[in-house]
Q: What sequence folds into this?
């Protein structure tokens, strides 16, 4: 009976997730039909669909998506790797944790866009500056989730590794990383999500490609339809990335056993 109730709730949630966007589109079109908003400001949905296919047909949208994704991956690899390394070091060493954590937490309080003037001074407005900016978004989630996972490894596991005389590399690869894997994968998902948000901001500064550049170009030409298509594409890709990573996370961590004895 409980399973049937849960199944009904799941179906209801999926139905609501489908109905709400349709309701928004209906209200959107209704507001335009009643002339509550100018079509120059609130673009009709059919116009956005037409603009989307025009951008796809010309190759502009595809090229800009590829450029943004490339910057996301490069920034994620830079910031995520650094965050992972520091997270492991601070998680394993109480001394390094005491030394580095105050500085890291102080730097975390700096608003993201406040870094942009310094980045431009150091790296100019070329590609490297955008990658460094994106890497800031990837750094903190990866660092803190890795630290939580590594520092949270049960002491009894560590004592067992010492009994079997695990060397440092084997201790790290056979015990620490596997035990911290749930937190690490969560850090990867959050880091990629923030990297995707940061790349749009990075492309507003002197870029010649990318979705942020496309939206800026549309704004300068007062083509609001291009700006809105960019917003929808950014949201759709971000949702797709998060859903894919959640699926991968669930598959990779299917070995976990919850407290009631059932696999997750």
A:
């Amino acid at each position: 009976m409980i399973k049937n109730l849960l199944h009904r709730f799941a179906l209801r949630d999926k139905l609501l997730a489908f109905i709400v966007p349709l309701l928004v589109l209906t209200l959107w079109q209704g507001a335009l039909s009643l002339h509550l908003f100018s079509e120059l400001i609130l673009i009709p949905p059919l116009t956005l669909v037409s603009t989307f296919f025009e951008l796809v047909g010309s190759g502009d949208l595809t090229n800009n998506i590829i450029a943004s994704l490339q910057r996301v991956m490069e920034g994620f690899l830079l910031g995520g790797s650094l965050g992972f390394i520091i997270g492991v070091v601070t998680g394993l060493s109480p001394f390094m944790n005491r030394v580095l954590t105050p500085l890291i937490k102080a730097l975390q309080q700096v608003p993201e866009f406040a870094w942009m003037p310094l980045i431009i001074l150091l790296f100019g407005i070329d590609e490297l500056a955008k990658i460094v900016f994106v890497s800031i978004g990837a750094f903190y989630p990866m660092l803190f989730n890795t630290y939580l996972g590594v520092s949270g490894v049960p002491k009894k596991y560590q004592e067992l590794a010492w009994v079997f005389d695990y060397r440092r590399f084997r201790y790290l690869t056979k015990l620490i990383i596997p035990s911290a894997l749930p937190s690490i994968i969560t850090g990867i998902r959050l880091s990629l999500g923030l990297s995707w948000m940061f790349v749009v901001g990075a492309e507003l500064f002197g870029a010649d490609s990318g979705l942020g550049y496309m939206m800026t170009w549309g704004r300068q030409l007062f083509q609001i339809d291009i700006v809105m298509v960019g917003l929808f594409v950014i949201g759709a890709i971000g949702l797709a990335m998060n859903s894919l990573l959640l699926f991968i996370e669930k598959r990779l961590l299917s070995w976990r056993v919850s407290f009631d004895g059932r696999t997750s």
Remarks:
- The two ends are 20 Å apart (CA to CA).
- The chain has one domain: 44-252.
- DSSP finds ten helices and no strands in the chain.
